[in-house]
Amino acid sequence: MLPLNDLMFVLNGKWRIRIILCLASGEKGFNEIKKCHNISPRILSKELKELEINKVINRYKKEDNFKSVIYELSEQGKELIPIIIKLQEWGERHRKNVLDLTKNI
Fold first, then answer.
1. DSSP-derived 3-state class of residue 71
2. In this structure, what is the dihedral angle of CA atoms 55, 58, 61, 62, given to the nearest 10 degrees?
3. Which residues contact 69 (CB under 8 A, 6 or more apart)?
4. Cα torsion at 63, 67, 71, 72 (round to 10°)?
5. Which of 12, 84, 7 shows the shortest CA–CA distance to 47?
6. Cα–Cα distance between 55 and 38 in angstroms, integer?
7. C-alpha span between 52 and 55 (Å, rounded)
8. What is the pLDDT of residue 104?
9. What is the mean pLDDT of residues 21-30?
10. Backbone angles phi, psi at 102, to 5 degrees
């Protein structure tokens, strides 16, 4: 159960899966990620730190005029995409089954 607990810890919360999916299309800056799902800056900063600690994302400074910080999925983070897609597919089937069940009540 420990590996499953680790996975649940990494994906825990309202925002982490959404952040991972936002980064699935490529690297993004802080404000781009914030706009993906309208996340508050304080929460986004906290979640990005947790994802970085868990090696799901990489953070680096872009050497441009603004010295902006860029985030991207790590290889480990990219491995989560098919898992998240499977969870979404299960959720869609579950929602349909529950809705069908409630129509019969």
1. strand
2. 170
3. 29, 30, 59, 60, 61, 62
4. -10
5. 12
6. 24
7. 5
8. 67
9. 96
10. -70, -25
Q: Which residues pair with 29 in a beta bridge?
A: 70
Note the pTM of the prediction, 2 decimals.
0.87
Q: Are 78 and 85 in contact (CB under 8 A)?
A: no
* Angstrom distance (rounded) from CA 43 to CA 32: 14
User: How many CB atoms are located within 10 Å of the residue 39 CB?
Assistant: 20
Give the single-character DSSP code of 14. Answer: S
**CA distance linking residue 27 with residue 90, whole number of Å:** 28
Show the tokens assigned to 88.
Answer: 């979404």
Name beta bridge partners: 73: 57
Tens of pLDDT, residue by residue over 78-97, are: 999 999 999 999 999 999 98
Parallel/antiparallel/unpaired status of strands 57-61 and 69-73: antiparallel
Helices (H), 1-105: 2-10, 16-23, 30-37, 41-53, 75-103
